Amino acid sequence: MPETSTPDTAEAADTVGGDRHQLYIGGTWVDPHSTAIVEVFSPATGARVGSAPDADATDVDAAVRAARASFDSGVWSSVPPAERADVLDRAAALIEERSAEIISLVSAEMGAPPAAIATLQQLPGTGVLRAYAQAARDYAWVEYRDGLFGTTRITREPVGVVGAITAWNVPLFLICNKFGAALAAGCSIVLKPAPETPLTGNYLAELFAEAGVPDGVISVVPGGADTGKALVEHPGVDKITFTGSTAAGKAIGAACAHSLKRCSLELGGKSAAIVLDDVDIAANGYMITFLGLFNTGQACVAQTRILVPRSRHDEIVEAMVAAARTMTVGLPDDPSAQLGPVISERQRQRIEGYIEAGKAAGATAVLDGGRPDGLDGGYFLTPTIFTGVTNDMAIAQEEIFGPVLSVIAYDDVDEAIAIANDSDYGLAGTVWTADVERGIAISEKIRTGTFGINFYAIDPGSPFGGFKNSGIGRECGPEGLEAFLEHKSTMLPAGYQVSQDS
Ligand code: NAD
């Protein structure tokens, strides 16, 4: 364990960024073993936001040991689920109380406008905490079954020490989701936040401690893929919960299989919105477009393939282009801004590469986005909408993670369903129709973990996750809680009478 020294309180008091020279391990700030630093710069302005230590394998080991000690001591794992639920509710209330501070920090790190963070990250973030709290209260932690040889007592026990590895695109929501599920189950956690958003991870760890999570139960090891690998490979970790790209998810899944660690993977997507010929486009055109472009397209559930009936193609495209034009791109301090920058110059160039590839493949940019004037300090891109896309093009198959929509025309609904399912991914999808029954019938044919009819959102109390390359396992609701539990069957001796209040 690294030595504890005086916390760097001056910088720690600066909640919108600041330099952290220490790591949050075991409930206190400790000097890191690593001398490397993760620097954070605003993707909106290029301004320096702050820094955190870039934790190395020795730091990860210290964090896992602290988590292990807290787990084995029972300081959290033995707390009754209803009391753990109360702590999660308190954390949700604290997030709401500190909303302005937290949102400025998240905005400084990942660049989105504050209003977008409030609706796309804070609302679902506090929502999942309360949903996990409710799931913990309602869950059947102990059950008795009539077995072949007598009564069997079935208990659900926390899986142990959890390594949580997260992406940068919605850090407030993702970290609440990881903390909420693992804490509701009674686990201890080592969080490895994305290198783009380490300060949000630190902030939330302290907030959860204030809500009542005992020391040692949460530790944070900022850093990049090497820090993540050290966590995945650590023998003291019982389960990895990962949110990020499919490529990293496959590597992590393989490493977990090697050591038989439990593993949940929330990965990428390339979701389709199926617009039916009876759609009220005046009422739905904005939302169809928004669901592909929100968070500047940096959303795993973004509906970036818009499947449109050929009979109404032009009218729908016109509505989409008009809607996209109203989505203002701007700086976080611009109250009219709806879309922020993309996360990095590298990512902006990658997106521009896809736009070029789309044009080269024969698609038409009916809205030809690009770098907007007057926002040169950040990595901004205005939305692009392609028509004439076929589903075999790279822009229809690969996750762009930027503000680029592909309109694909179809002739009949079976063809639309086949196109929607012709994807390596299977995370989300929607159908847009005046006939909800028709929408439900289509939902049953789409191979994705979540789906929406004339609407889409992640419901904090219902299972969320992917089919196919979009992942393994489910988060949210009782299914998300269960992913952090082991089941144990205890055979009771013949004649044993189970008491009423067991
Ligand atoms: P990424 O895979 O590059 O990184 C995600 C996290 O994993 C980071 O913390 C990174 O440091 C770490 N990491 C990378 N390689 C690793 C390895 N080999 N071992 C251990 N850790 C490793 O993804 P990103 O660019 O940060 O995020 C974007 C991706 O995340 C997109 O594909 C998006 O769809 C996906 N995502 C999925 C969900 C979901 O719930 N399904 C939600 C948000 C984002």
Automatic annotation (TrEMBL):
It catalyses: an aldehyde + NAD(+) + H2O = a carboxylate + NADH + 2 H(+). Its EC number is 1.2.1.3. It is an enzyme of class 1 (oxidoreductase). PROSITE patterns: ALDEHYDE_DEHYDR_CYS, ALDEHYDE_DEHYDR_GLU. Keywords: Oxidoreductase. InterPro entries: Ald_DH/histidinol_DH (IPR016161), Ald_DH_C (IPR016163), Ald_DH_CS_CYS (IPR016160), Ald_DH_CS_GLU (IPR029510), Ald_DH_N (IPR016162), Aldehyde_DH_dom (IPR015590). The active site is at 266. Residues 29-489 form the Aldehyde dehydrogenase domain. It comes from the Bacteria. Gene3D superfamilies: Aldehyde Dehydrogenase, Chain A, domain 1, Aldehyde Dehydrogenase, Chain A, domain 2. SUPFAM superfamilies: ALDH-like (SSF53720). Belongs to the aldehyde dehydrogenase family. This is aldehyde dehydrogenase (NAD(+)).
